[in-house]
Amino acid sequence: MKILLGITGGIAAYKSLELTRLFIKAGHQVQVVMTAGAKAFIQPLSFQALSGSPVRDSLFDCHQEAGMGHIELARWADQIVIAPTSAETLAKLRIGRADNLLTTLCLATDKPIMVVPAMNHLMWFNEATQENIQVLKQRGFEVLEPAVGEQACGEVGAGRMLEPVAIFEQVMQAQKQRLQWEQDVLQGGAFWQGKSVLITAGPTFEDIDPVRFIGNRSSGKMGFALAEAAQKMGAKVTLVAGPVQISSPPCVKRVDVRSADQMFHAVQEHYKDNDFFISAAAVADFKVVHKSIQKLKKQAKEDILSLSLVKNVDIIAWVAEQPKRPVVIGFAAETEHVLGYAKAKLKQKKLDAIIANEVGEGAKGFESDQNSVTLITKDSFFSFDEGSKKRLGFQLLNAIASLNLRSGCVESI
Ligand SMILES: Cc1cc2nc3c(=O)[nH]c(=O)nc-3n(C[C@H](O)[C@H](O)[C@H](O)COP(=O)(O)O)c2cc1C
User: Fold this and answer.
1) Does 11 contact ligand 1 (Cβ within 6 A)?
2) CATH hierarchy code of domain 193-285+306-403
3) What was the pLDDT predicted at 65?
4) Is the bond leading into 164 cis (omega within 30 degrees of zero)?
């Protein structure tokens, strides 16, 4: 693997000598890129000696081919690892600065970037740093969070850079996962190439008044993972997203909605143009009958507030009933009797397949990055052990591909 190792200005920079040695020993190629800050802590010569190539540190380098070292390095790398990542570089990555070689090549790459923050614990817990980390995670950066322990400043807390061996193992693990995804893409690509897929994801919010709503704990991660996997496998993807804090996978058409009614209208508009409809959203079953225009006031005498609710349209059942319809695949998020309820829903709503998903206390389904699910059709079962939702997205699409379901037919199950 070609690893571009970025080093920024922090005390932990010395630990990256050992990290370089571990990568080289395992047979990887390493190109070190240092910021000016990093060079204040450690000499480039040590990295050059260990990696076997001169350290790159200048954005304006006339000796590079076409004078565009940042583009050449961005293309060369299979994986970018920035260890240590300073608070300053995290901030620059978050806002997209391009004022040194490392930040510029990070902007110019589509390769995976892993950041390994290291800093004083107050810097780490500072709201600005935490917000930067959250935004970077949402954009797909891998973040190896710092360890707790004694710090160079003499204080104790979270902010120590992970040890080189731990970083090395995480990089290897991430590479293994990527290779797995690439295999998945190859496997399902032949089926999904050129297909169009409509996916709903996330919760819906049913407004009570201008400041309150009824919602649920769906994070949207499973639907977004399916959208990303389908797009990577060559499908044209439309993603109808409820209110979630996730950035869209690249090249996916996203339609943002808030309520079940809005989601229904978006699905009505798009379902006909799609070969598959995958309903991963946790759509509210009910909405408030009379949404108040003004904020509801607490009545001094009343201990109980009654809200009248009315059923929302059952979106998936509606699509499944249409005479000319896509292949319809639902999710059954249940807290008990998961498989039994899922099978009943498959039959009752005349779906082509259903993905049974345990949710609630102790289960992974909602809010987590992990999940374990079962794909059920009228005559087959595919169980998937706990794994990342991103990987499950590919696995589910491969399993669906193997079923060879066709659109336009409402089969009676
Ligand atoms: C002695 C010393 C130690 C520092 N250690 C850290 C550190 O561990 N983490 C960090 O984020 N910043 C640390 N800084 C601050 C950074 O070096 C500074 O923000 C610098 O601008 C980082 O730039 P860079 O990210 O481009 O390398 C330290 C500064 C000094 C003077």
Assistant:
1) yes
2) 3.40.50.10300
3) 55
4) no
